[in-house]
Amino acid sequence: MSDIQSKTAVETIRDRSEKPWLSPLNQRRWQNFKANRRGFWSLWIFLILFVLSLFAEFLANDKPILVSYQGEILYPVIVDYPEEKFGGFLAVTDYRDPVIQEEIEAEGWMLWPPIRYSYRTVNNEIPAAAPAKPSWLYDVETRCGRYMQGADDPNCTPGNWNWLGTDDQARDVLARVIYGFRISVLFGLVLTAASAVIGVSAGAIQGYFGGWTDLLFQRFIEIWSSIPVLYLILIIAAVLPPGFFILLGIMLLFSWVAFVGVVRAEFLRARNFEYVNAARALGVPNRTIMFRHLLPNAMVATLTFLPFILNGSITTLTSLDFLGFGLPPGSASLGELLRQGQRNLNAPWLGIAGFFSLSIMLSLLIFIGEATRDAFDPRKTFK
Amino acid sequence: MSDVKNPLLSVRDLSVAFRQEGKETLAVDRASFDIAKGETLALVGESGSGKSVSALSVLKLLPYPAASHPSGEILFEGKNLLAADERELRSVRGNKITMIFQEPMTSLNPLHTIDRQIGEVLKVHQGMGDAKARARTLELLHEVGIPDPERRLGAFPHQLSGGQRQRVMIAMALANEPELLIADEPTTALDVTVQAQILELLDRLKEKNGMSMLFITHDLGIVRKIADRVCVMTKGKIVEEGPTEALFANPQHEYTRHLLAAEPKGKPPEADPDAETVLRGEGIKVWFPIKKGFLRTTVDHVKAVDGIDVTVRAGQTLGVVGESGSGKTTLGLALTRMISSEGDIRFAGCDIDSLSFKEMRPLRREIQIVFQDPFGSLSPRMSVSDIIEEGMRIHWPDMKPAERDQRVAEVLAEVGLDPSTRFRYPHEFSGGQRQRIAIARAMVLKPRFVMLDEPTSALDMSVQAQVVDLLRDLQKKHNLAYLFISHDLKVVRALANDVIVMRNGKVVEYGPSTKIFSDPETDYTKALISAAFDIATAPAGVVSQ
Fold this sequence. Notes:
The complex is a heterodimer of chains A (383) and B (545).
Chain A: H1 2-12, H2 24-35, H3 37-54, H4 56-59, E1 66-69, E2 72-74, H5 98-107, E3 108-111, H6 140-143, H7 173-209, H8 211-225, H9 229-239, H10 244-255, H11 257-270, H12 274-281, H13 286-323, H14 334-343, H15 348-376
Antiparallel strand pairs in A: 1-2, 1-3
Chain B: E1 9-20, E2 23-35, E3 40-44, H1 51-58, E4 67-68, E5 73-76, E6 79-80, H2 86-92, E7 97-100, H3 104-107, H4 114-126, H5 130-143, H6 149-152, H7 162-174, E8 180-184, H8 192-209, E9 212-217, H9 220-226, E10 229-234, E11 237-243, H10 244-249, H11 254-260, E12 277-292, E13 297-313, E14 317-321, H12 328-335, E15 342-347, E16 350-351, H13 357-364, E17 367-370, H14 384-395, H15 401-414, H16 431-443, E18 449-453, H17 461-478, E19 481-485, H18 489-495, E20 498-503, E21 506-512, H19 513-518, H20 523-534
Parallel strand pairs in B: 3-9, 3-10, 7-8, 8-9, 14-19, 14-20, 17-18, 18-19
Antiparallel strand pairs in B: 1-2, 1-4, 1-5, 5-6, 10-11, 12-13, 12-15, 15-16, 20-21
């Protein structure tokens, strides 16, 4: 028995005269997060997908990544070269044009991304009327039947496959899913971050000062949050041309309210803690007390909420796109993909692609959120 | 250890282990003790010694399965309670063995009336009807000394004082005429005057009902007063056992001797009546309005502090004593301008009573506060270094980080902590060490006046003495003026030059501490002193119930 005791005593007395990179509390949280295998793996899968999608221009594009032409290295993804550089006359080069391709191949070489379509590239060589089935469902002759040299055409490569088929405007679905994933996640992240900043500040001020500030602010929030958001967006969308930032702004007007309640409650509770009084007695200004002493308390509640708000924002954007009031026509959007699936029931690959990309993204985020919540729960212990 | 014949309760080789994050910690290590019929056994030890855990094991009230018993048996009337099933345990709990706890507020259900809480015990264990239970409840309340019990039947816990709540807890514990009463620090949360009354009540009830008592406490004064035999516990082991008289007269184990020697000792330094006045308050009043009616008009005031004059001189200590609710802390907060008050406050010759919070900021460096609870007053998310540095960042914004770090190391050494521990977090320190950190946070700013709000009452006895010595040394070294607020007269006597005795916001007695302790003038002061030093009760009406 005494063995156990002496062993733990040795373990707790560690020489730490250096500043640890992570406070012990955060180290414990990180351990707890890692102990939730599902959340931990979801985080990695999500991070890989998200980082890949940030470089979508290098993954799926109708321009080559690198071109060597007459001994000169060109970067078509980054720079728009006029066609006259390659002997043409258009203002922007169409690298998918067989004439330009032959010209470049004759004078050098070019390196294509794995998928040779951008989200708005129309594939003129689809084997059937749009929407076309995924390319692997056709045999070689049908798949490349529209190219000039048929199955022997140099463009008859897997890079020109439509892995998930095309939509009803002959655009590649996989490319649209990649770009759509990126815009959805970015929209969600920006909206969540901005709402968190506004909501946490508002909640902090209400909770810390209390009294009349709190009372008036709470009544304002009650009125504000009773405005039906969806109808308001529909009305504003009819007046202003909807775009990424306009949508973000409108939704931001209402989404910050979700944070106020929890943060306010934490501040109300913690403002009478003895260590807050001790800081006041040291003469620490209110602003610093709120940031250094109270905010960490409220951060637990906020971080627990974050993933769910993030998911909510993504879903709202998707549903607006589905209804046709979201991002401008032609944008890569998962909601628009779902709408096409609903309109073209004869092309199930549209609906299936939209459904799976959305559900996988939302599930990953929820699993991460769940693991975060567990990690911050002081009572949860893992074996 | 079998000097007890026919013990009522016999604990043999009891061990308790707790499992947390994959690690097993042994809280109690093969403890054995016996309690005879009609005997009071005291289990004494400092916090973390395993005394409460041992007592909770008797009724299997620990959080199983996180807790486990690697060895031992607990024999009560010949039955092993550790091996008993839930049904058998229920017939013992609250019936033959009952418990009273430290905090009477949280042990009573705030939503039920007194009548219902005591009645429930009677109905469950004795199957009494409503009328019979009510009659018995009245009888019990009368027995535990609740005044006017008929009127108190419908009262909720928050309508009673701390002492009365503890009396109700005792009534509940006695309802089924138990064989054994386990009292887990029953008076720690109470005022000294009320503590004396409760102890007297417990002793009287024990004699009357012929029950045994297992009394858990950290206070040796109480042990000497109430116990027949004593077990001294430290680090999960019982190191010494014996009859109270013999153990106090001739302690065998080193730890027992250490405990007995741990009372705060020493005398304050000689008071120089001509020393510079650091802080002076005249006619300090803190009145909280009582608002009533739809228009919230002020109908009356709670007079927390009602016209008090104080003078604190450099290098000297003014002690403020009184029962809880007497306005001690409110007075201290008013003098340090943490709450608004009326009256004249002069600090080092300047009027500070009309300064705003912002205008006070430069003075905050010179006026420091050390709070009661060393667990609450340090932010759990900041390292010790950050906590101590915080004040310097505000008052000396131009100081270089290296110099700040240097000062943190110096002040930690000064309060008796290892400077190399400054990057650790508060939870890695014990209560006494945490209070030293809190003192370091105040001292690093080189203040002239320090308000100490019960800085020792959350600490173990032996640690209290060390903190008192530290405070006295610091005062001598830096010529500090202290305002020392405490309900513990032993500590006040060891530190204060002058004493204010407060009651209901007013001064009862004010004078040099030697005079107040040797020759108190008022009955109230006399009652406080006899309760603190002899645990004696005062005649009714002098102190609160």
